[in-house]
Predict the structure.
Amino acid sequence: MRNNAIFRIIVLSVMLPVFWSCTPQSEEDRFIDDLLSRMTLEEKIGQLNQLDPSWDAEMKEQLIREGKVGSVFNIVGAKQVNRLQRIAVEQTRLGIPLVAARDVIHGFRTIYPIPLGQAASWNPGLVEQAARLTAEEAAAEGIRWTFSPMVDVARDPRWGRIAEGYGEDTYLASSFAAAATRGYQPTIAACVKHFAGYSASEGGRDYNTTWIPETQLRDVYLPPFKAAIDAGAMSLMCSFNDLNGLPSSANHHLNVDILRHEWQSDALLVSDWGSGSDLVPHGLCADKKEAALRCINARMEMDMQGNIYTDYLAELVREKKVSEKQIDDCVRSILRMKYRLGLFDHPYVSEDTPEPYSEQALATATQLAEQSAILLKNNGILPLQGNNLRLLICGPMADQRKEQLGTWVFDGEPARSVTPYDAFRRATDSRFAYIRMLPGLSYSRDKNTSRFKELEQAAQQADVILFFCGEEAILSGEARCRADLNLPGAQAQMMDRLAATGKPVVMVVMAGRPLTIGRQVEQADAVLYTFHGGTMAGPAIYNLLTGKTVPSGKTPVTFPKMVGQVPLYYNRHNTGRPSYDPPMLIDSIPIGCPQFSIGQSSYWLETPTEPLFPFGYGLSYTTFEYGKTVVTPTDGQKNNYLVSCTVTNTGEWDAYEVVQLYTRQLSGDLVRPIRELKGFERVFIPAGETRTVRFPLAPEQLAYWHERKNDCQSTVYLATDTALFQVWIAPDSRCQALADTLCIR
Ligand code: GLC
């Protein structure tokens, strides 16, 4: 037996190199290897350097001339980009082109809803189209690399960057991660971020520490990155956070074990802004030279605006602490991305820039804003019906061209925004007798209530009040975390005064996160949650409120009743003491009540665990009736099933319904979530008609990461338990519909 094994090793050790040398090298590899062989160490290190020349321009242009820059970002415009490109291509020894990057997060000139809003559409196809149109606008102005999609699964609305991602569910976020990547590429390179675990920051405070067990990291946070990589993402970005004590820029397990070995990815890994040099304030490294060593040893390949590679790598190679091969591996990644973008053949962009804001872009922006809006309440006031309606349009978000664009907007021009007030006053709809506009508050944080009296008087002349409230753009996004999720400023008081007029109030919320608006929801006759809807938010809202379009959005994130419930998400564990019956709340506890006489279960004395609105929730102008979920084995031996259900449009409006598939594993090697989204489909159902919706369900869709511990060794592996599962096809994650079950043997 032993000789056999030895023989096999000898054969392999002889055959493999022969095999390898016979494998035809691709043209791409030949090109990269040839270029690499002609580069000096300084030129290689220069390729790993990304700078923002929008300041200190002259010094940075000189660095480009010296071959010390591989990429620039925050430079926009064909002329500006070409000017820097000419320096790189025509004034350096090897003429390696730059790649110009930009945060093109939810649009370039035409701005689409914030990604959290896009997720509410549950329409990856439309998001892919928006990304494709965005890439065309950006590439026309010289941008060939976007730092998007951001795919951090976010369960904490206090975290300002929840606005930038696709919500709290891994499956939904993975669908959008792949769609956005397909849309951007190959016109511009996608950069899936932030790798990894950034959104689990303690306390919902940005850049804060994250503690994520390996199995949860792999079940919840990594799949959207893998989905983007599988869709061909050309790059990823490190995250700022320390993950279990190790900042991602220095995390060999993330950046090499998982990204290179397990996923076999050849995508470029770029730091976040100075996240390499941040290892010093993190307390991981004593100085920036050590930071450079830790980062290159963890295969962080490009240094964004940190200058640690250009300052220290050559010295570390001379000290033999870093090998030139380590640097070559990183340089290959950046050369490969430039090659795949065609920059070596076509480094310049036409300076005959086409007009942005094309008809198709604006139409797509309108459609996506419509589908990103969630109807949370409607007592029948919507859509606005009748003739000669007198409208009072009010609130700090009714006419805010910049604020409605949302966070992470650099190149979208507010002047091109169409606000809700614009849309209503431009409408030729005869249904409205007159439209009066009174903001009441000048901006979302405004506490000046002096105009409320005038508002109350104006309300007496109106048939319907449209109250546009929410958050200014600056209140969400990076480093914009909130410890209070109520409407800012005096907006709640404004709603109190409007409700007291007795006139019907339609509340439209434009925000970067779910807000704790329970009181306002009770007071309003209807609530439309549009997040920050982008350039065409106004026309989209007009179309929805007037019934030209029927709302179809569903919550991509749980809406908590109060900030004390956070983090609150649908796919949580049940605990050993779930709070089933209505628990005793604080004001009901009898005075002097004995310690253990009011029962113990998992809830808060101020509120049960129920959210204000659950994940996957959204109303329509019509109603849908779900039949019983039916599970049918399609291949019993292999545990393959088909899950089906009838959905009937029982109302009067033709409409789309986002039908969702959930499972729950009832027992197993580990405790599992009480619900898990495993599929969804936007289905068009004409009034009065029925459709049968079907989803395949295979064992691999029910797999999760296990951990086997032997003494101090830990091994993780993906597997599906032999177990009984509940299965629902439902309108949201509460799954009132009757479940069926299936057994994986
Ligand atoms: C920021 C963000 C990152 C962005 C980068 C470049 O700090 O964390 O998402 O792409 O810097 O602007």
Summary: The longest helix spans residues 2-22. Residues 206 and 479 are 5 Å apart (CA to CA). The pocket of alpha-D-glucopyranose is lined by residues 103, 147, 193, 272-273, 478 (CB under 6 Å). The chain has 21 helices and 26 strands.
